[in-house]
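Quick question, first post here. What does this chain look like in 3D?
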Amino acid sequence: MTSSATLPGSPPAEERRKRRLALIGGSLGNLVEWYDWFVYASFAIYFADSFFPGNNPTTQLMNTAGIFAVGFLMRPVGGWILGRAADRHGRKSALTLTVTMMSVAALLIAVAPTYGQAGYFGALVLLLARLLQGMSIGGEYAASATYLTEASARNRRGLGSSFQYVSMTCGQLLGLGILITLQHTLTTAQLESWGWRIPFVVGALFAVIVFWLRRRLQETDAFKEESSGEDAHDDSTRGTLKVLWQHRRQAGLVMALTLGGTVAYYTYTTYLTKYLVGSAGMAKTTATLVSFTALTLFAVLQPFAGMLSDRIGRRPLLITFAVGCTVGTYPIMTALGSASSYWTALGLSLLALVIVTGYTSINAAVKAELFPTRVRALGVALPYAIANALFGGTAEYVALWFKSSGHETMFFWYVSGCALISLVTYVLMPDTRNAALSRAEAEADDADREQPKAAPVS
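> Answer (accepted):
Ran it through. C-alpha cells below.
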C-alpha cells in the first residue's frame, strides 16, 4: 500500500530516512515556535510590573494575560493567510514563513522598553509582538499538523502527529528550564529588572537556526500529488474560503472537538504555575519545578498514546479525555488549590495531564484526516484558530477574572462544561483513523475493496 509519504521508486530504507528527517525538521521548528509563544506566559510573573504599574499583582497579571489573549485573536488571521499559503504554495514554504515571523516577534519583546523608560509605549510594543506571534502560531499549528500527518506512514499517522505536542511541550520545557536556571543564578530583583529579556533573545536566535533547517525540508508527497499531474486542482481553488465552505461540517467539527481540549490544555500548562503560586501559596521556584516535571512526563506520554490510536482508533482516546476532564476538573483543581507540598502538586498535575493526553496526542491527525489535500491546511488552521482565540487564549484571563471576583471555583465548572461539549462531538463524529489523505491511498483502498472479486490465481 502506498502512503502519502511514500516516494515512488525509492527503497524502503530511503523512505524511512526521509520520513525521519521530515519528523525531526517539522518537530524542531514547532518546538522553537511554541517556546517563543509560551515563554511569555512563563516569565509574566517577573515582567508584569515592568509594563503595568500598580500595587495589585493580580491586576498586573490580568493585564499581561490580556495581551497573551489578544495574541490569540490574530491566530485566525494567521491561520487564514498562512493556511491558504500552505495549501497553495506548499507546507514547507508556510513553515519557513512562520518561524521568520516568530523570530522578529521574540526580538521585539526582548528590546521592549519598560513603563519607567517609555510609559505605555513598551506595552504597545509588547502588544504588537504578541499580535505577530499570534499570526505566526495560527499558521504554524496547521502547517506542522498537516506536514507531520502527511509525512507519516498511513498506519503511523497517530504516532507521527503526536510529535506536534511533544515538540510543543518541549518548547515549554525549554522555556521553563531557562526560567529555573535563571531563578538559581539571578536574584529576583535582577530577573524583574532585566533577566526576563534573556529567554526572548534566545528564542530569536533559535528561530534563525530553525529557518535554515526548514529551508532544507522536503515537500510532502500528498501536496506534490495535488499540485502536479493531470488531475491536479487549479491553483486558484486551493486553500480558499469557498472550498472550505464546501467542507463546513468538518470545520464545525474541528471547532467543537478543539473547545474542550484547548481550555484544558492551557489550564494545566500556562495557568498552572500561576495557580499554584496565587491560590495554593506555593513558592515561585517550587511551582515552576512542578510544572517542569509534570510537562516532561506529559511529553513522554504523547507518542505512546499516538501509537495506541493507530491500533484502536482516535475516538476512544478523545472520549476518554472528555469524560475525565468533565468529571475530574473540579476535584483536581480544588485539591491543587490546597496542595502544600511538591509531591502532592506534582501527582495532581500529572493526573490532569494524563487525561489531557487523550486529546493532545492525536488532535492534529484527527483534524488533518477530516479534509482533502487542497484545503487541508486551511481547514485545520482557521476553525482551530477561532476556537483557540475564543476559548484557549482566554482561559487564563477567565480564571484570573473569577479569582479576582471571589468565585474562583466557577472556573473549574467552566472547564468541565467546555469538555462536556467536546464529549458530545466525539461521541457523534466518525473515527478518522482509516481516512485516505491522497489519491494513492484512495486508490489503494479501492484495490483492497475489489480484491475479493478477483479471480483466484492458478
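The chain has a mean pLDDT of 85.
The longest helix spans residues 12-51.
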